[in-house]
Amino acid sequence: MFEARLHQSSFLLKILEAIKELLNEATFQCTQNGIQLQAMDTSHVSLISLFLSQGGFDNYKCDRNISLGINLSSMLKIMKCAGSDDILTIKNHEEPDSITFIFESQSYDKVSNYQLRLMNLEHEHLDIPETDYACVMKMPSSEFARIFKMLLQFGETVEISCSKEGVKFSTSGDLGSANIKLAPNNTTDSDKAVFIEIQEPVVATFAIRYLTLFAKATPLALRVQLSLMPDSPLLVEYQIGDKGHLKYYLAPKVDD
Amino acid sequence: MGILGLSKLIADAAPHAIKESEIKSYFGRKVAIDASMSLYQFLIAVRSEGQQLVSADGETTSHLMGTFYRTIRLIENGIKPVFVFDGKPPQLKSGELEKRAERREEAQKELDKATEAGDATLMDKFNRRLVKVEKKHANECKELLKLMGVPYVEAPCEAEAQCAALVRAGKVFASATEDMDALTFGTSVLLRHLTFSEARKMPIQEFHLDKVLEGLGMNQAEFIDLCILLGCDYCPSIRGVGPKRAIELLQKHKTIENLLEKLDKSKYQIPEDWGYQEARKLFLNPEVADPNTIELKWGEPDENGLVEYLCGDRNFSEERVRNGAKKLAKAKGGSTQGRLDGFFTVLSTTPAKRKAEDKKKNPAKKSKGNSSFKGKPK
């Protein structure tokens, strides 16, 4: 049996908002340690790897490993039925083919109950090699979101170049071009600081649209970490407190 | 006509070998397209009020219309197509070709009858049956592809075989054809419905040869024998041995030779001078150009050349052709998006469980193949 309880149902809503643009349906794998999801978008350009630790739930029980195949837009519909500070309980036991969402208002005077039918999905498990990235930067997640929102107005492809001096994002299109440079700063406010660790300079290009979709995870974490390697996928990582993490990988653009 | 009933058999015996996906998922993939098959589709399907499109002097242009716009659609979706044209038909196909000619004659007779009776629906039906891809159509398309900057390959013999060779050599990701015998020729991935019109909303079917073989519990040689038993273009099959029997017999006896020894000759009639060995040889070692000598290059479209070629006598709208050329140039420009598949390897696949109840939930996944489209008659 599987049962998980969250005092703030809005947390799960934020998670869904952060992945629904890339995935239509996904398999959530529930184990003793927590809930895991790993999936590529249909065009196999990006990959989402989500982990929600059991410690992040207010109550978590999972006595055997189960896979829940879920249509994300249906799940989103259910999550939107909840009040923002409702208490959520997710259950899968009596009926193995469906999953139940129970929302209780904080004062326990209203209880709503939704059942979602599970799907049978093919699931590919990918091996993501441990990589020693040449360049790792950390910045406020809101800054990351703003940069790519702006760049999207100018072009489709961003060139990210990192060096000791800082990191430069540049794009160009019909309108003209845009360049944004971030230098590492020594602010004492650790939420606002920009850190860059460099072993060797990297220049790589990526599709801006995907980066703006990754930025949908902004409400989940104050900080974001970007890791780059020449000719390798970009890793964009949101650490969700001690509740888990959400990682996005993006394949680079290549010249023929 | 490909292999009789093979797609249905695969759907039943090896359902995991078939995946359905959108055109988007083939982003960044190179695909070899069986040109004769797609030309035939275009001649049949690209019509206005039931009539083929024609130029000012009455020459058909349906194939050019189809090749132009549907290739643009593929390229806009990030696919890199290469067209493969048929060469001379193999000697073994003469029997099949005769049959097709006969059918065409019959259709002509029926058409004459329908014309006399003035039955428009029947006229339309038989008109379509008379459609034949001619050398001229193929040559015009090659000319067009050159202007579009899309590469093409002239196969010495069967186009499906050449496509399969390109896939096996790693030059392209998949063969796109409706003919299931691309699998018999050994293509590792076969795509169906790739060149269908967008309006039909037909999902693309992806067949994986390794999973087909796994599902059937056979190796490639046994699979080829199975296809021969099912009915291929190159020799007759045994009357009375249907798909079910064919699988059973081959799983038990492994080769047609062994099976012939055991088969009850009084019950089944083996065709006279049965050329199954030649057919097998053709599937195993088809006449193809060495894929390593073929260089595939996607170039810039020649906008003015396209306008000159398609507008004027051929009656294409200049504005639309220029737009199309711009789309091609845009898709070509800049760098191409890579895929993650190259970086991460699949550790394991958990297939969707096929339980009785999900049949109701998910009928689309169980599609038995599209039997209404039977492939090209020549």
UniProtKB/TrEMBL annotation, chain A:
<dbReference type="Pfam" id="PF00705">
    <property type="entry name" value="PCNA_N"/>
</dbReference>
<comment type="function">
    <text>This protein is an auxiliary protein of DNA polymerase delta and is involved in the control of eukaryotic DNA replication by increasing the polymerase's processivity during elongation of the leading strand.</text>
</comment>
<comment type="similarity">
    <text>Belongs to the PCNA family.</text>
</comment>
<dbReference type="InterPro" id="IPR022649">
    <property type="entry name" value="Pr_cel_nuc_antig_C"/>
</dbReference>
<protein>
    <recommendedName>
        <fullName>DNA sliding clamp PCNA</fullName>
    </recommendedName>
</protein>
<keyword id="KW-0238">DNA-binding</keyword>
<keyword id="KW-0539">Nucleus</keyword>
<dbReference type="GO" id="GO:0030337">
    <property type="term" value="F:DNA polymerase processivity factor activity"/>
</dbReference>
<dbReference type="GO" id="GO:0003677">
    <property type="term" value="F:DNA binding"/>
</dbReference>
<dbReference type="GO" id="GO:0042542">
    <property type="term" value="P:response to hydrogen peroxide"/>
</dbReference>
<dbReference type="GO" id="GO:0006272">
    <property type="term" value="P:leading strand elongation"/>
</dbReference>
<dbReference type="InterPro" id="IPR046938">
    <property type="entry name" value="DNA_clamp_sf"/>
</dbReference>
<dbReference type="Pfam" id="PF02747">
    <property type="entry name" value="PCNA_C"/>
</dbReference>
<dbReference type="InterPro" id="IPR000730">
    <property type="entry name" value="Pr_cel_nuc_antig"/>
</dbReference>
<dbReference type="GO" id="GO:0072702">
    <property type="term" value="P:response to methyl methanesulfonate"/>
</dbReference>
<dbReference type="InterPro" id="IPR022648">
    <property type="entry name" value="Pr_cel_nuc_antig_N"/>
</dbReference>
<dbReference type="GO" id="GO:0019985">
    <property type="term" value="P:translesion synthesis"/>
</dbReference>
<dbReference type="GO" id="GO:0003682">
    <property type="term" value="F:chromatin binding"/>
</dbReference>
<dbReference type="GO" id="GO:0043626">
    <property type="term" value="C:PCNA complex"/>
</dbReference>
<dbReference type="GO" id="GO:0006298">
    <property type="term" value="P:mismatch repair"/>
</dbReference>
<keyword id="KW-0235">DNA replication</keyword>
<dbReference type="GO" id="GO:0006275">
    <property type="term" value="P:regulation of DNA replication"/>
</dbReference>
Automatic annotation (TrEMBL), chain B:
<keyword id="KW-0234">DNA repair</keyword>
<dbReference type="Pfam" id="PF00867">
    <property type="entry name" value="XPG_I"/>
</dbReference>
<keyword id="KW-0255">Endonuclease</keyword>
<dbReference type="Pfam" id="PF00752">
    <property type="entry name" value="XPG_N"/>
</dbReference>
<feature type="domain" description="XPG N-terminal">
    <location>
        <begin position="1"/>
        <end position="107"/>
    </location>
</feature>
<keyword id="KW-0235">DNA replication</keyword>
<dbReference type="InterPro" id="IPR006086">
    <property type="entry name" value="XPG-I_dom"/>
</dbReference>
<dbReference type="InterPro" id="IPR006084">
    <property type="entry name" value="XPG/Rad2"/>
</dbReference>
<dbReference type="InterPro" id="IPR006085">
    <property type="entry name" value="XPG_DNA_repair_N"/>
</dbReference>
<dbReference type="InterPro" id="IPR036279">
    <property type="entry name" value="5-3_exonuclease_C_sf"/>
</dbReference>
<keyword id="KW-0378">Hydrolase</keyword>
<dbReference type="GO" id="GO:0043137">
    <property type="term" value="P:DNA replication, removal of RNA primer"/>
</dbReference>
<dbReference type="GO" id="GO:0006284">
    <property type="term" value="P:base-excision repair"/>
</dbReference>
<keyword id="KW-0479">Metal-binding</keyword>
<keyword id="KW-0227">DNA damage</keyword>
<dbReference type="InterPro" id="IPR019974">
    <property type="entry name" value="XPG_CS"/>
</dbReference>
<dbReference type="GO" id="GO:0003677">
    <property type="term" value="F:DNA binding"/>
</dbReference>
<dbReference type="GO" id="GO:0004523">
    <property type="term" value="F:RNA-DNA hybrid ribonuclease activity"/>
</dbReference>
<dbReference type="GO" id="GO:0005654">
    <property type="term" value="C:nucleoplasm"/>
</dbReference>
<feature type="domain" description="XPG-I">
    <location>
        <begin position="146"/>
        <end position="218"/>
    </location>
</feature>
<dbReference type="GO" id="GO:0005730">
    <property type="term" value="C:nucleolus"/>
</dbReference>
<dbReference type="InterPro" id="IPR023426">
    <property type="entry name" value="Flap_endonuc"/>
</dbReference>
